[in-house]
Write a structure and sequence with these properties.
This protein is an alpha+beta fold. 50% of the residues lie in helices and 11% in strands. Helix 11 (260-268) runs parallel beside helix 14.
């Protein structure tokens, strides 16, 4: 284990899971345990269960679970050592490290220092004669010097290796520059700067670290935008450009846009609550990050087809979450030739001004209004057949609304748009609701008729080959966690008798802790098991286990495991005569029958 066990035991003891989870998720106590809406998937009805006595959490919806370290790893996007560091700092504990941990921490710290020094280099270049082209570009884009400083903007020289040579002089190696994505390797094997003759936009995380760079060309060459690759300190799925500044905003919401320069213009115009995703569609990880700072989002994507698709995907992802979501649709701009073209937030503010954008912000639609407008735009509602098709599609959308009041309000609006009576539209929505319910019942029936599939782990790599034995193995682990005093002082089972490798490994890890006098808890296995394995084991612990007949239950579980093991051996022996002869000799001589203390 990377960290000494006494340290880990004390860290977990000091890091109460209710306190940690409660700092991210509102929890309500019910029947002696805590419940809340899961921060790892979208839901309105709480299915996220936190058990203080066992120091574990489990979501019955997305099936994620584990101890306090797993929770911090998942919600903060940290590795195991980083999560330990995070909790230790919170608990005021000094972290003992071995050479491996020190090396990982050193490399991460070194990369962040390199990014910071690169950002300083780009900023200094902006102020020098080599940065004149970028300064001219910023002036054309009406970006003030104060705004450029606020965002830490810089300029990459029109040179093949200016950054590389400057960083080498500071003591960084070529390997470090390559790992950080600041240089790339050509076909001839030579290294050269990734960013050349570009406006540089440092990407800063909510802790204030420079984790990556965005960039833009100064002319019409391609690629117009270029970003850092993913590195040990940067994941674009978990990062939002401008959030380090937007988190300080006094505005009650966050505006989500597409482009980095849109964010710069919005902040300069007084909308300091704007952020942008890093060249990707909105992700669950970004939603979790946003939930720490706001409960209201305003989607402000470009008004072209790609922007509408991105808005629709974001709305689907945010459906049934605790977020209030509105959509700000930017109007198309009319050119001198009379043609209507798309415009982004940057264009709109420069042409119409901040006050006009504020009015759009105030009048922005909620998510359902936007989706209804998109559906209506697909049909000619003067044509009878189109009206019928519209009613069918809109009724499916309205049937998915969980609020009866919302459904009634928007059903009336849909009826008005289609020029039919509210009663007729209501009947169509009710019909769609029944269809939806029937489809859900059929899906549940298919699950119920396949109980073996229900009993299998969600993660395919953990699937059971022998369900009967695995269920008994699950029972043994549950009883070990509930009352390890039930077990004798010698192994009741041998490793080879377990049919599921994970369950066998978990049992003997717990057994080792018992023998060493350490706490026999699931949370203590976080260092040895993957998040997926921890989630599965936490799910096992959620299954009911009566303690009234625990001695008999343990004996029955062990009997089933041994019986299924004998069946597997017999089956293998039929296929392999040499194995049968070997097994017969082992049984006769007593080899393998010794119990280990």
């Amino acid at each position: 284990m990377a960290f000494p066990q006494p340290f880990m035991d004390e860290l977990i003891a000091r890091s109460d899971i209710v306190d940690i989870v409660g700092s991210y998720v509102p929890l309500n106590i019910k029947s002696g345990s805590y419940w809340g809406c899961c921060p790892f998937h979208n839901e309105k009805t709480p299915s996220f269960h936190v058990l203080q006595d066992k120091q574990i959490y489990y979501c019955f919806g997305c099936k994620k679970g584990g101890g306090v370290i797993n929770f911090v790893m998942e919600i903060e996007g940290l590795t195991f050592p980083e999560a330990v560091q995070f909790l230790a700092k919170r608990a005021g504990m000094e972290v003992p490290t071995d050479n491996t941990d020190q090396d990982v921490a050193r490399k991460r710290r070194r990369m962040l220092e390199l990014n910071r020094d690169a950002a300083k280099f780009y900023y200094q270049t902006l102020l020098q004669p080599e940065g004149q082209g970028v300064r001219d570009y910023l002036e054309r884009r009406q970006i003030s010097k104060a705004t450029a400083v606020k965002f830490g903007m810089g300029a990459s020289p029109d040179s093949w290796d200016a950054l590389m040579m400057a960083m080498i002089q500071k003591g960084y190696t070529k390997a470090e520059l390559l790992s950080a994505g600041l240089v790339v390797q050509g076909k001839n094997g030579k290294l050269y700067d990734k960013f050349r003759n570009r406006l540089m936009l440092p990407v800063i995380d909510v802790q204030g670290n420079v984790v990556a760079f965005g960039s833009r060309v100064l002319d019409k060459s391609e690629p117009k935008y270029m970003n850092s690759p993913e590195t040990p300190v940067y994941s674009k799925r978990r990062t939002l450009y401008g959030l380090n500044l937007a988190k300080k905003s006094k505005r009650p919401n966050i505006i989500l846009c597409e482009g980095n320069l849109d964010i710069v213009t919005l902040h300069q115009a007084g909308f300091d609550n704007a952020v942008a995703s890093m060249g990707t569609a909105l992700t669950p990880e970004q939603i979790r990050l946003l939930s720490r700072f706001t409960k209201e989002l305003i989607l402000c994507y470009d008004n072209d087809n790609a922007g509408k698709i991105a808005t629709e995907k974001a709305l689907q992802l945010l459906n049934n979450t605790e977020f209030t979501v509105r959509v700000l649709q930017l109007p198309k701009r009319r050119t001198e030739d009379g043609e209507y073209v798309k415009q982004d937030a940057d264009d709109f503010i420069k042409l119409q001004g901040a006050d006009a954008f504020e009015r759009l912000l105030t009048d922005s639609e909620n998510g359902i209004e936007f989706r209804m407008a998109q559906i209506a735009g697909k049909y000619d509602l003067r044509d009878d057949q189109s009206r019928i098709a519209y009613c069918e599609e809109i009724s499916n959308l309205l049937a998915a609304l969980t609020s009866a009041v919302e459904r009634e309000v928007y059903t009336n609006r849909a009826a008005e748009a289609a020029k039919i009576t509210p009663d007729a539209m209501r009947l169509e929505v009710e019909r769609a609701t029944r269809r939806k319910s029937a489809q859900e019942r059929k899906a549940q029936l298919r699950k119920d008729l396949n109980p073996a599939a229900q009993l299998q782990p969600q993660e395919r790599s953990l699937r059971y080959e022998n369900v009967a034995s695995a269920l008994a193995e699950e029972g043994v682990i549950r009883l070990m966690l509930l009352d390890d005093s039930l077990f004798p002082e010698v192994y009741p089972l041998q490793p080879e008798e377990f049919s599921a490798p994970l369950l066998g490994r978990a049992f003997f890890l717990l057994w080792e802790k018992r023998c060493a006098g350490q706490p026999v808890t699931l949370a203590s296995l976080a260092a040895e098991l993957s998040p997926e394995e921890m989630s599965h084991l936490t799910g096992i612990c959620q299954k009911p286990e009566s303690m009234d007949n625990r001695h008999k239950a343990l004996a029955d579980y062990i009997r089933i495991i041994k019986k299924e093991h004998q069946k597997r051996n017999a089956s293998d022996a039929q296929e392999d005569p040499l194995l049968a002869a070997t097994q017969k000799y082992r049984n006769k001589s007593g080899i393998g029958g010794k119990q280990h203390g």
